[in-house]
Amino acid sequence: MSLVFPPLYAIIDSALLKTSELSFAEMMAESGVELLQYRNKRATSRELFDVSRTISARLARSSASRASVVRFIMNDRADIALLAKANGVHVGQLDLGVEDARAIVGPDAWVGVSTHSLEQMDAADKTSADYIAFGPVFPTRSKENPDPVVGLELLREARKHTRKPLVAIGGITLERAADTFRAGADSLAVARDLIASSDPAERAREFLSEASRSRRLSGAPD
């Protein structure tokens, strides 16, 4: 791994939100989250573009006044990521391939890919993907048709298959964070446990605190 990857990957899942996408994005950024993904499976292309462009512009202004950059990733849609000036795109196994997405968003944008088996992990490792997501590590209700649960043991094995940043996905909660980091995850993708919290901002800070603690214990750079 050639970069210190943000330890918390907050997912702005429109199906779960109690507030607007923009409000949630701003809340996460103000809490110290440096990586956000916007996911909306039901919106039209126009709606996706309008919301993504607004979030991207607001986070870019926010980053300009901070010491750290808040990266904004678009789920699935490389075309909208490019038009909205997002910082990258995340693709799944049924979306555009990594290299096709890369051709659209360009060499400087981040391209991430979800994997659900060691075979998919090995294939992703051979691409130009900037990071690889693996899971679902735990049962998840955030997706309508989730893939089979891989568990922590397979996550540990997946860690051996790549030197790229490894993002754990699926059913991640604060209570499971420490074990997931110990299993080899560089970052935790979290949707429901943040959004459903009575105080999402505080929940995000708790995740970041746990990440710092886990990194200190492992000797990794904080």
Describe what this molecule looks like in 3D.
The protein has 222 residues and is an alpha/beta fold. The chain has nine helices and eight strands. It has helices at residues 21-30, 45-64, 78-83, 98-105, 118-125, 151-159, 174-182, 192-195, 200-218; strands spanning 8-13, 35-39, 71-75, 88-91, 110-115, 131-134, 166-168, 187-190. Strands 1-2-3-4-5-6-7-8 form an eight-stranded parallel barrel, surrounded by seven helices. Helix 3 (78-83) links the parallel strand 3 (71-75) and strand 4 (88-91). The model has no long low-confidence stretch (mean pLDDT 94).
Helix-strand blueprint:
Elements: E1 8-13, H1 21-30, E2 35-39, H2 45-64, E3 71-75, H3 78-83, E4 88-91, H4 98-105, E5 110-115, H5 118-125, E6 131-134, H6 151-159, E7 166-168, H7 174-182, E8 187-190, H8 192-195, H9 200-218
Parallel strand pairs: 1-2, 1-8, 2-3, 3-4, 4-5, 5-6, 6-7, 7-8
Helix pairs in contact: 1-2, 7-9
Distance between the termini: 14 Å
Most strands sheet: 8 strands, parallel, barrel
Number of helices: 9
Spatial extent as radius of gyration: 16 Å
Spans of at least 5 consecutive residues with low confidence:
none
Helix content: 40-55%
Please report the total strand number as a whole number. 8
Please tell me the overall pLDDT: 94
Order of helices and strands: EHEHEHEHEHEHEHEHH
Q: What does the overall shape look like?
A: globular
Report the portion of residues in β strands. 15-25%
